[in-house]
Amino acid sequence: MTSFTPLQRLVVAVAILASFVTFLDGTVVTVALPAISRELGGGIATQQWVVDAYLITLSALILLAGSVSDAYGRVTVMRVGLIAFGAASVAVALAPDPLVLIIARAAQGAAGALLVPSSLALITSVMRGEVQARAIGVWTAVTTAAQMIGPLMGGLFVDLLSWRFVFLINVLPIAVNLILLRRLALPGHERSIRVDWTSGVLCALGLGGLVFSLIEQGRMGWTSPVIWGPGVAGIVLMMLFLFRQRSDAALLPLSLFGVRNFAWGNLSTLFVYAALSLNGFVIGVYLQQGPGLSATAAGLASLPITILMILLSSRAGAWAGRLGPRLFMTIGPLLMAAGAALLLTVATEFDYWWQVLPSMLVLGLGLALTVAPLTSTILGAIDERRSGIASAVNNAVSRVAGLLVVALLSTIVGGTLDLDGFHSAAWVTAALFAAGGVVSWIGIRRAPATASTGATAPGTPG
Fold this sequence. Notes:
Residues 11-448 form the Major facilitator superfamily (MFS) profile domain. The chain is mainly alpha-helical. It folds into two domains: 6-184 and 251-443, Growth Hormone, Chain: A, CATH 1.20.1250.20; 196-250. It has 19 helices and no strands. The chain has helices spanning 6-28, 33-40, 43-72, 74-93, 98-113, 116-126, 129-160, 171-183, 197-220, 225-244, 260-289, 295-300, 303-323, 326-342, 352-355, 357-380, 387-407, 409-413, 419-443. Helix 3 (43-72) runs parallel beside helix 6 (116-126), helix 4 packs antiparallel against helix 6 (116-126) and helix 14 packs antiparallel against helix 19. The protein is globular, with a radius of gyration of 21 Å.
């Protein structure tokens, strides 16, 4: 970060640490799921809810949090989010049964929703152009590495201590970031943006009803009123939510999607992050329940992706800033599709080095080429005043993608995550990645020096 000013370095460090805990906690739990299920019971449904309870509140409230960040100030919102996230993490670690665990996970997601939009908005509020592209590249490299290294850290804690310690990893980075926030002095914030609290409630309840139906239908069937009732209610509430979003003052300003790169970039995000979530869940669980690897070994399986992300992601952000993002956002997902397809070589006679490692290397290369250009393109398309909500929309899209694909897990794998189910998940993952690449090629364009929103696109001359 030597090319940044002292203020910019501090902002990037704060943004990274704030997002680090939410991204880490989204994936560190994956390899702990079998241990949680063994201790607390509940089978695959409990495993799905441990993941999706977090994603429901994170996805549903991240839009609201983006508006709150723009209205009340990024530093204030981030401080509240960090304290709440730390408290919820302790509650998860102490949970005595599945219900308490799931409720605490939902609280974690709600707190996490306050962190990601405010952290990226901090970057876009003090940096634009190529400097912003480099900053987002660094942010992306570290936070995505947190997602990738999460399973390894979780595996070590599960094998050496207990799954409960997995959720206490956050305490140290939260404490450090609260100290750094005291040193961060930004210009005074003017509260000029209205927060649509009603839309936030509609979104949260709507997503909750839909996900409940998707997860529990495998156990009760679609004919049960306990299933179709919440499902129908969820659809109605989401329709009411969208009906309210008809102005720039709304929680989700639909006018943002009139910006080409923002709209197409978010559609690509939907496919790519659905594939990433499905792949991460299936790898973490199957390698333990199928070949019988330890939690640590299952976590180590994805380490090559982490290494490649750290080495290449910030460079990819800079390259995309100079050459334009379209090529990277197309080739990257197509490489990841090929990597997912390589998992079809996994057989009953398991061999990590020939059946899984090649996939991890190709996936890591594709992911490193994709994530920073994708994030920079989407955020650079929107002016700084709305950077909080723009960041929130993109993060909400990625979380909803993961939320829905995990909720559909039983359908995707045919009810059981055995070898056939693993192969089915690999096919679906490859198709989702490929769709993300095709969408980027069709829709993404190199932005002019000054976009219609008044934003300078990252990396464009001007």
